[in-house]
Design a protein that fits this description.
This protein has six helices and seven strands; from the N terminus they run βββββααααββαα. By secondary structure, the protein is of the alpha+beta class. α1 runs antiparallel to α2, α2 runs antiparallel to α3 and α2 packs parallel to α4. It is elongated, with a radius of gyration of 42 Å. It starts with a strand and ends in a 5-residue tail after the last helix.
Length: 314
């Protein structure tokens, strides 16, 4: 018993009695149906063909195929040549591939909605990306399944020539149809990968738009701070003057000969205020440019050491 991706082949042959039994399982084709970014469902369908060659008896089992596809498959049976067991798989794939096509187009519609304004929601973008990854994975498995069906039909022709010696008109159309379905599945897979790239482009664009919005907000905040600074500069002189004349160094009491008098110790205000202001500015400069000052001092020490040792820089 050999197993490949999506298809399992079981063969039993007794040449003496010429009893041959061929069982082909089209196993667990999975399609993801996405209605909304957070609303999806899985379709998992299986086809089993059990063929007894000497008696030409066949047992066909189809599991979990949606009703519309069941009706489509039944309508195709009356025109199907049933002498080739792989024809069942070809017809089954022809019906199921429509589910893949619908799945890809539903994902395309979701991605297209996010490409249009207003700005997309990031959780929905990531949900859609996850669905597209799953879709690409299932399409790759389905394409591999069709290619393996082609390989198994060719092996059947080589290993059991007596079972189809006069059936060239049976297996040749089936082979051509399987080739066509494999190419169509490859096209769907390419479309799914294209959707992935489009979604990545939309996510990058959304991030850039958000960054630009944050940049504009930062510029707006900076402009507001400048406005506050200008307003402070406008009111600061008046505040300083009112604070200065509100001290005990000045006397505006009525009844004096002069409108106001100044204390003899007024110089103490300037003696304290000016050094304190300069010290405050100096501390701020040293803290703000501390790295530059440290770098300049280090370069100066290196220059002094080179002069002391007589080193020459080329």
């Amino acid at each position: 018993m050999g197993s490949v991706d999506g298809v399992t082949i079981f063969e039993q042959c007794d040449n003496d009695a010429w009893t041959q039994r061929l069982a082909v399982i089209y196993d667990e084709l999975m399609i993801k149906k996405v209605l909304k970014p957070n609303d999806y469902d899985w379709v998992q369908t299986t086809l089993l063909v059990d063929w007894m060659m000497p008696t030409n008896q066949r047992t066909i089992l189809v599991l979990n195929l949606p009703e519309p596809q069941q009706l489509a498959l039944q309508s195709r049976l009356q025109y199907m040549n049933r002498l080739n067991p792989f024809t069942w798989h070809m017809e089954f794939a022809s019906v199921v591939i429509r589910l893949y096509d619908e799945s890809i187009w539903s994902l395309r519609d979701l991605a297209r909605d996010k490409e249009n304004p207003p700005p997309p929601k990031f959780p929905h973008l990531h949900d859609i990306g996850r669905h597209i990854f799953h879709s690409t994975e299932t399409l790759e498995v389905a394409e591999n399944t069709l290619l393996n069906l082609l390989a198994e039909q060719n092996r059947w022709r080589v290993e059991f020539p007596e079972s189809h010696s006069n059936l060239r008109s049976v297996y040749l159309p089936t082979q051509q149809r399987l080739h066509f379905l494999a190419k169509e599945m490859h096209g769907l897979k390419t479309r799914s990968r294209s959707l992935t790239e489009r979604l990545h482009n939309e996510i990058n664009l959304a991030f850039n738009l958000v960054s630009q919005r944050y940049g504009r907000d930062a510029q707006s905040d900076s402009a507001m701070m400048k406005t506050v600074g200008v307003v402070s500069l406008v009111y600061l002189p008046g505040t300083f003057v009112s604070g200065l004349f509100g001290t005990n160094f000045f006397d505006f009491s009525p009844g004096d000969k002069s409108p106001f008098s100044t204390a003899n110790s007024f110089w103490m205000y300037w003696a304290v205020t000016i050094p304190l202001t300069l010290a405050t500015v100096l501390v701020w400069v040293l803290w703000h440019y501390r790295l530059l000052i440290y770098k300049m001092r280090r370069e100066g020490w290196r220059a002094l050491r080179r002069q002391g040792t007589g080193e020459i820089n080329y």
